[in-house]
Design a protein that fits this description.
membrane; DUF7942; transmembrane helix; transmembrane; mainly alpha
């Protein structure tokens, strides 16, 4: 029986080694970068750089909001969501690369 759609999304995001490695790297990035950075802004830069493809799109409204508690909450929520989106896309790529070509029908 095939997985349901929400279960398949969760499995692609969290249940393969590529996505888990990416999420572990993103989660440990503040600990890895903090000894070499002086301020929080530069550590946030590395966090945004690690989640780059989708964080660029999600952080566009963050430029207008300014400095407030709501802006900080949106900023970190957008970075976490972009990490999950990237992990899902890595899971899709991992599944498509691991798929057996013999099972796919050849049309000629």
């Amino acid at each position: 029986m095939r997985d349901s759609r929400p279960r398949a999304i969760v499995r692609l995001t969290f249940a393969n080694p590529v996505s888990l490695g990416y999420l572990a790297l993103v989660a440990s990035l503040p600990l890895l970068v903090s000894p070499w950075t002086e301020g929080q802004a530069f550590a946030d830069f590395w966090f945004a750089l690690a989640t780059a493809p989708s964080s660029v799109v999600l952080l566009l409204p963050d430029v207008v909001t300014g400095f407030s508690a709501w802006a900080s909450a949106y900023h970190y929520s957008a970075l976490a969501l972009s990490a999950l989106i990237n992990a899902f896309l890595l899971g899709l790529a991992h599944r498509s690369l691991r798929r057996n070509p013999a099972r796919q029908g050849h049309t000629a």
